[in-house]
């Protein structure tokens, strides 16, 4: 894999400095959040962070051995990176905390059925619901969609999580204050479904909550 480094004071750092607009890093951060959310949203049990998933994990772990001169240089983890204000690992950590908190507030979330609402390979868009939450993913690397519609239970929805929020390292292109109402379609009236139309920036995901009785 290709790894991008910056040389500072004879130390190698990831291009994870805030204000360093690196396309490869932006792409990696966006995909990292999407993969974590789709994993959490489809769990059938616990959600586990394990080796290689930690924020600020070094590129490799190389324990002391004859081949490296019994060096301890890489036999460590850089846990401090997530707490450093000048780096972007904190943004990833904030997203992780937000998505875990979201589903933790729902009793027995993992027991709720996963209902697919939309799956279109050509557009690289996936949408499914679990309880009152609708999870929407635009995996397309470059294509954003305006008023992208898919069928969902009729009613009102509010955005409760967006990977594009600036506090999560996104660009802030999704207006999380907008309430979304489904558009009626007589063909699906008996199913009590309508068209939910959203703005889907490339490489973003968002979670919407169905508002019962508009409360």
Number of strands: 11
What is the CATH architecture term of the largest domain?
Sandwich
Q: Class by helix and strand content?
A: alpha+beta
How many independent structural domains?
2
- Low-pLDDT sequence parts: 1-12
Which CATH class of the largest domain? Mainly Beta
Q: Give the percentage of residues in beta strands.
A: 25-35%
Order of helices and strands: EEHHEEEEEEEEE
Q: CATH superfamily of the largest domain, called what?
A: Golgi alpha-mannosidase II
Can you list the strand order of the major beta sheet? Answer: 3-4-5-11-7-8
Radius of gyration: 20 Å
What does this 3D model show about the protein?
With 215 residues, the chain is an alpha+beta fold. The protein has 2 domains: 5-104, no CATH class; 113-214, Immunoglobulin-like, CATH 2.60.40. It contains 2 helices and 11 strands. The strands form 3 sheets. It has a 6-stranded antiparallel sheet. Strand 3 and strand 4 (125-130) form a beta hairpin. Helix 1 (23-41) packs parallel to helix 2. The relative contact order is 0.15. Mean pLDDT is 87; it is low at 1-12.
